[in-house]
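User: My collaborator sent over this chain with a note saying "see what the structure looks like." That's all I know about it. Can you take a look?
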Amino acid sequence: MARIAINGLGRIGKLVLRALIEDGTLGEIALLNDPVGGPATHAQLFEFDSVHDRWRA
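Assistant: Without extra context I'll predict from the sequence alone. Here is the result:
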């Protein structure tokens, strides 16, 4: 299984992260690098997306 690093949690980073979590077979998320905000901010922005609606895992 591949180890994957995502650089930035913008529009594309969120979509890639959602796909990895939902599919689970693409690889392991080894690193999420985004210098703006902390874990709580990223969790909020990841769950409530203004374009792709709320994500319920």
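A starting point for your reply to your collaborator: The chain has two helices and four strands.
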